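Example 488, ligand S-adenosylmethionine.
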Amino acid sequence: MKGKPKRLPYSDIDLSRWREYDHIRVESLWLIPSRDRTGGHRLDYHGGFVPQIATQTFLRYTRQDDIVLDLFLGSGTSAIEAVRLNRRLIGVELQADLVEKVRGKVPANLLDERIFVLQGDSTRGETADRVRTVLERMDASHAHLLVLHPPYHDIIRFSDDPADLSNAPDLGTFLDRFEAVARNGFDLLEPGRFAVLVVGDKYTRGELIPLGFYCMDRMQRVGFRLKAIVVKNITRNERGKGRTENLWRYRALAGGYYLFKHEYVMIFQRPQRPSDIRQELLRVQAMLPWGRVQSDAWDAASRFIYSVRTLDDLRRETKRAAREAGLPLRAFGQYVLRRWYNYHTHQIVLEMILAHPRTRAEADPFHPTVDFYLDGIGFDLKMSEFPRAYPHDLRYALDHPEDLARWLYIHQSQQGRFHGANRLFIVLHDAADPDRTWELRRDFERLQQAVHTFLDSPRLFPMEFTDGTGRRHTPTTGVIFCIRALED
Ligand SMILES: C[S@@+](CC[C@H](N)C(=O)[O-])C[C@H]1O[C@@H](n2cnc3c(N)ncnc32)[C@H](O)[C@@H]1O
């Protein structure tokens, strides 16, 4: 039986059907037999990358309608792939004639609507500002994937323009200019999203210059986190074979070096900014009750909550989704706000838990019953308000956490995530004003203290309960109380 679709916030891949994605590469060696010449790709330019690099990375790191930003557009391979895969794109290229050529390849109805091609120098702040203006026109604040395929310094000279990276007078200048482009790209990319760097090494006077690794280092300096180094074979033009091939073989043998047969596809991620989302969560002024039960349709329409990091973006995405799915804006907006607030406060508390030396993370973000391991035992994290329907008072619960835990297990929502596996409960209660208990989810200092006090000497207990269907469960559980007392 197929489960509910499981999608990461940055891709349309449904992880519940992961076996069906044979065409998506997950290994770090890409032997690509030949250039894909279908779907509008032509071999009319020396120095482009094979379309498969765009196909693979767009499918893994973008959703439909996402915006790809390519700051070295060249002959527009990524623009054509964006059209084919129904993504949007902003491309920047220094050479005006190439810009015109690419514009000629893009279907007229998409040009300047979904595909934008700018002539400019990607090292400059002024070019980044022009990209920002286009993003605004596209109703977005950031791009969703960054593609960088710079010249490999002076291996191929692309133009006579002194601003062209292939005309940088020396390696240091080339790297500084590359870093300027990477920095622009970093600022224009949405936090949490990915960047693809396609780059190769070179030889200068018999010495290997590891350009790929130097560029990687510059990416890291501007703040990107490295996720993967893929080695991709270079597929040469068949015409290059024969006599010249033999000559190169001879030179390699004679000179003690190896012929490049590979280049790199490096994947980076712009980190999220944890502190920013805390500020945004603190800006939420009111929280209405759920108002309706969680439904699959509303859940599917509000999937954007996972990646959205600001209230402004949340508002904009909510409006767009309500319009697209024909949902009532007010009610859907309240639902989205609570889902977003609960999800991100849960993630922050999970980060607090994972900062403790006794814990480690579960690698699968969709693991049905484990968020983290405490002393090697897997637990699901559950944050709950102290339930009004619980038959005893708070004092009793503090003295008998097992009783409260049993009650919470038995009375958990019957929808979706009902389970009897190990759980760590965080129980919140504002004694002075119970209606404001929702605010304790963002009382980060209080939570931090409660969580770490508990984890320093965790009090876990075995539990036994029978669910509504008569099944017996025997989880290990614990309760962390986070209480705002009357005198606080
Ligand atoms: C390796 S090619 C990119 C090829 C592209 N991925 C494709 O598939 O066609 C590098 C491109 O960067 C451009 N370029 C060089 N310096 C630049 C700069 N400062 N700003 C923008 N583009 C630049 C060159 O004109 C060249 O077309």
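Summary: Residues 45, 47-49, 72, 74-75, 77, 92-95, 98, 121-123, 149-151, 158-159, 163-165 surround S-adenosylmethionine (CB under 6 Å).
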